[in-house]
Every structure is written in C-alpha cells, then in structure tokens.
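Re: coenzyme A structure - here you go.
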Amino acid sequence: MTEEMKFCRQSRVYRSGRVFPNDFNNHNTLFGGRLLSNMDQVASIAAAKHSRRECVTASVDAVEFLHPIRPEEYVTFEAFVVWTGTSSMVVFLKVYTENLRNGEQKIASIAYFTFIALDENGRPYKIPGIVPETEEERYLYETAKQRNNYVAEKKQLNKELVSFLKKKL
Ligand SMILES: CC(C)(COP(=O)(O)OP(=O)(O)OC[C@H]1O[C@@H](n2cnc3c(N)ncnc32)[C@H](O)[C@@H]1OP(=O)(O)O)[C@@H](O)C(=O)NCCC(=O)NCCS
C-alpha cells in the first residue's frame, strides 16, 4: 500500500446517544431533519479523518428512513469513507437503534454523503485513495463505484434545473 492510500477503518466514527423530547415530531418519533443533521455531522468527521482537510458536503444520496425511532430506543451512528475520487469522498452512514427495554436492534436509516476536501484557497484538494478490507467495506466500495457513474449525469441534470429555476427568479 502506498502512502496515498488509507483503510476504511481509519476514518470510521461511531456516536451513540439518547433521543430527547425536543427531537421528536408530532408522531412522537425522531424528526427526520434532526436525524439528517446528526448524520451530516458524523459523516463530516469521517471525511476529515480520511483527508485531514476542511471538507464540504457536496451531496447527500439514497437517504432511507427505514424505521421510526422511538423514545425508548437509543441511536448509534456509524460512518466511514467507502469510496474516493480525486478530491471527493463518499461516506456511508448507517444509523441503528437498540430498544433499551428489550434489547431489540434495528437499522433505522442509511445514506451516502459526498464530501469534497478543500485546500487553503477553498479549491478541491487531492486526497488519499481508499482500501476496503472487510466484506462489508468491499461490498460498499464496489457499489459506491457503480453509484458514482451516475454523478456526472445527476450533476448535468441539476445544472439544467438550476438554470431553469434562475430564469424564474
Ligand atoms: C462542492 C464544491 C466544492 C464543488 O465545487 P466545483 O467547483 O463544482 O468543483 P469541481 O467541479 O472541480 O469538482 C470537484 C469534485 O467535486 C465533485 N462534485 C462536485 N459536485 C458534486 C456533487 N453534486 N455530487 C458529488 N460530487 C460532486 C466532483 O465530481 C469532483 O470530484 P473529484 O475531484 O473526486 O473528481 C462546491 O460546489 C461548493 O462549495 N458547494 C457548496 C458546499 C456547501 O456549502 N456545503 C454545505 C455546507 S458544508
């Protein structure tokens, strides 16, 4: 492995916490916006650990809210870099819960966050490549590579959408 490569485990971050009444929506389950904000925070730590640079979130893809999160559960966020481009990093984010009364565990949410590492002038900065080791990391690496094929297409479509919207301003 060259100096320019890092293992997925080197960026891995975990954060666990309880959910409090202020975090809930009208259905007494965790508010999706609050969950996303926490996911972005944890994912940004993984991106910074991989690149050791300032990073910005470029896009958030394939967010799935799979199960509502209830007051009797605590939440764990797990994030790590699964794929890298030149300055971009795809961070996979997994949120799981455990019911504190009966120990039942669930995957509550998953998402892919793309971060861009920046240099001192705020321009994209070349980052180390990524080396997956475990079965899960290899699976995520391969599928993230396929997902990345859509990035250029999505960017072009969004560019067209933004020009269209600007005409309406
Ligand atoms: C993200 C940002 C730096 C990209 O700038 P840019 O001038 O379009 O950069 P480039 O076209 O040179 O692309 C740089 C990299 O970003 C990637 N990228 C840019 N937009 C992207 C998007 N929407 N999704 C995924 N990757 C993206 C490019 O593919 C490229 O990756 P690579 O270096 O691995 O090949 C810029 O759009 C930005 O600052 N956006 C605002 C970010 C922000 O405020 N986030 C919220 C708070 S952190």
